[in-house]
Amino acid sequence: MVNNFSTISNSSTISNFSVNNFSVIILAAGLGKRMQNPNIPKVLATVNKKPLIYYVLKTAIELNPDRICLVVGHKRELLIDYVNNEFLIEFKEFPSSRIIFAVQEEQLGTGHATACTEQYFTNYQGNILILAGDVPLLTVSTLSSFIQLHNSENSDITVLSALAPNPFGYGRIVRDIENQFTAIVEEKDASKIEKSINEINSGIYFLGSNLLFDLLRMVDNSNSQNEYYLTDIIKFSKSLNKKIIAKDLADIAEVQGINTPEQLQEIEKILNMR
Q: Which residue would you say has higher pLDDT here, 40 or 157?
């Protein structure tokens, strides 16, 4: 994969030393074409008077990672300004030096977006938790269990999955005859049989930093979208005989992404019930 990107940072790259042994990448560069507001980044759409990214960042901070890296793109100056000012004023106990911004100049897929962070993890020996900036309901409890599973199973890559009554639009978790996780297939690339699978990919991953970027360099855009899929790291990790796990630790509502104003309203109802 060729990385055409630039970066904006509050500080320098992470050193070999890591306090908590993991960092977080939040993918937040999306355009949000169906959100009916092209003047703001998708993750600044509001739920209960707070932008979507507020809830994801808050959850990430409560996990106390070494560093949080936001991948920004469309109208990025608005998102960077929000995080550096309004958000960090509320969460002033989390040093601004532990938040990085990596810019994805072109929308070339989730794999490309993740690769845009590589220079900030050059010497980092910890793990990486990858989150989506438009998934506000994910809880600290679920993510803590997810990380604990990865560690207890000595997994190389762990994927958070969920069981969906209606899996349309989600990548499917494909398993072999022995129920071993073998691949993630995107909706538009799925066969009729694969589309019948109701275990879906949440888009949340946990793996070592060095392994992540090694795998991303293998990813190409030979698919129906001509994009670099982050999900393809599973295919390449299998070829390297890495141990991969997918586990349905989350309720489907918890991992629901937001693509429309109607989904924003649904999420707001759930937050109010909480």
A: 157
